[in-house]
Amino acid sequence: MSALICWPVARATFRTRLRSPGPWLVGFLFTVAGAVRGSRHGAGIETFSGPGTIWFIVLTFALGAAILSDEIESGHAQLVLLRPITRAAWYGGRLAGGCLAMGLFCVIAWLATFSAAVARGDGFDPMRFASLVLALVWGCAWLSVLTCLGAFLPRWTNAGALGLIILAWILLFGIVATLRPAWAGVVETVTRFLGPQDPMIFAEPTKPGRDLGPALYDLVWIFVPWVVGVAILNRRELARRRA
Amino acid sequence: MDDPPALELRSVSKRYRLRDGGEFAAVDSLSLEVRRGEIVALLGPNGAGKTTAMQLALGLLHADAGEARLFGGDPELLATRRRIGYGPDAPLFPKELTGLEVLTLHGELLGFHHGDAKDRAIRFATEVGLAEPSRRRIATYSRGQQQRLGVALALLGDPDLLLLDEPTAGLDPAGVAAMREMLVNLRARGAAVLLNSHLLSEVERVCDRVLFLKGGRLLRTHEMRATGLRAEIRLANASELLARVPQMFASGLDGNRLRLEIPGEDAVPPLVRKLVEAGAEIVEVRLIGADLEQLYLEIVEGRT
Fold first, then answer.
1. For residue A16, which residues of chain B lie inside 8 Å, CB to CB?
2. Which of A17, A66, B254, B288 is the S-S candidate for A101 at Cβ 3.0 to 4.6 Å?
3. Integer angstrom CA distances of residue A212 from A142, A208, B27
4. How far apart are the first and last CA of chain B?
């Protein structure tokens, strides 16, 4: 495991992410959104759906912005990589640190939603745990994409670029649906494979356990960008040394 | 078989392409070595290639030609990296962390368990005079405190090879003195040190060898010990002695000061004895090392 993830780097990343005010502000709004919607029939999904989805996405972007460039551009990465660790382990550590921070915010928001639901008369439902795990898989997959982009984009532009790509795709979808309704189905099918998918269907209270496919697909979106990101980081670093 | 040098550059060159299509040689066919128990300094004007040479040695840059070796092997071997310490000229750290957290992180990266890494972090923070500030976030550090943290980071793993780029920049006099003591202690335990500094007085006091660089090329290697020392002796009766025993003071007498090259400190007592026997009234004896500033101006600037 240490060849993939450098845990001291992960812990340091976790700390640095938690000491920025941005994620706390977004995390607070995320928590409030969940607590307001927590109900006896929500099974925990309400934390990560509706307004919660928006705050969850913003939180992911806040945690993933500049996740690599912070260190690379300050020069500290150079000092860290002079220690006996590989670039792959450093990359894994940065990603894992971001995921740990996301995990903390998700648990806080999830607990707030759960507490609100209990206060409104909900009993214990195992699917509540499933919704937390599924949300983490989804969030970590997006964080992995952001980290991958951070391997070649400077400063916070990894988050900016991903935001623009998503907006452009939504715009394209809208244009196609309006001007060429016949193609809308094709675009929708393609969209299912572009980026991590919403895995909450598995924890849907009306049909629990229905479809685990999106969650498994999101696991692919954790590992593929990870491998690609490490390859890009290695190539760029070697090119920089040779330049 | 002899141990390989701790650091070795063999005819390394590093060129950068310029926007106008030309090339700039940051380092040009540079060869040097640093052996264990030796402190070597790189001296030269800004842009002489000192920092580039260090980065080539560490594998942070790849040479266009030539080869860099640490302890006889590839600088990028993980086992080699465990043995080196590097303090860059302007170290930058995550501002959200405390100095102690950064030191602990690097201790863990060196393979120490969290508790040991933390103990070492506290020890080295104290050694470089950061005992109290190390508990604060780095965002609150002054330039000198960041420099001290960089030095502590370089020393953290008890390195066998230490590379320090302008370690005294931004340090107060107490920091400079502490740095000197640390370097001498490192040499005493057999570590090799490559130092890049503009502070000639410090280089003069601690270094065994000085390499003068300009335009990426090695101009001259100067052995600090080989030059020996100069003794400057102030006499109360210089003119009387010159009249009485001119052969003894034929050269080296400047006013009431007698200046003589001596092989080392051991030569001072017999010299003083001989002068006293000749009737000299000695007011003061001063030992002066090689005049590095003069050498620098001669070699690098071409001034005589």
1. 94, 96-97
2. A17
3. 18, 10, 58
4. 43
Query: Does the predicted model carry a pTM greater than 0.95?
Result: no
Of the two residues B255 and A32, the one the predictor is more confident about is: A32
In a mutational test of the A interface, the residue from B60, B95, B109, B147 whose CB has the highest number of chain A CBs within 10 Å is B109
DSSP state of B98: B
Structural domains of chain B, ranges and CATH numbers in brackets: 7-83+159-223 (3.40.50.300), 94-151 (no CATH), 229-288 (3.30.70)
**Substitution target from A69, A82, A235 for chain B, most B beta carbons within 10 A:** A82
Nearest in space to B151 (alpha carbons), one of B187, B199, B195: B195
- Domain ranges within chain A, ordered by starting residue: 7-242
Interface list for B 114-153 with A (CB within 8 A): 137, 153
**In the beta sheet, which residues pair with residue B220?**
B212
ipTM over 0.90: no
Q: Any idea which residue has 């335990």 for tokens?
A: B189
d(CA B90, CA B14): 22
- Using a CB–CB cutoff of 8 Å, tell me whether B103 touches chain A: no
Spatial strand order of the sheet with B257-262 comes to B253-254, B257-262, B229-235, B282-288
| Placement of tokens 């090392």 in the chain | B289
Residue type at A126 in one-letter notation:
P
Task: Tell if the CB–CB gap between B81 and A75 is shorter than 8 Å.
Answer: no
CA within 13 Å, CB half, A71: 27
Summarised one tens digit per residue, pLDDT across range B260-285 is: 877 777 788 888 898 888 888 889 88
Q: Which helix (H) or strand (E) holds A9?
A: helix A7-18
Whole-angstrom Cα Rg for chain B: 23
pLDDT per residue as tens digits for the range A203-226: 666 665 567 777 788 889 999 999
**Contacts A–B by Cβ distance under 8 A:** 71
Which DSSP helix (H) or strand (E) runs through B27? strand B23-34
pLDDT band for position A1 (cuts 50, 70, 90)? very low
Distance from CA of B151 to the nearest CA of A (A): 12
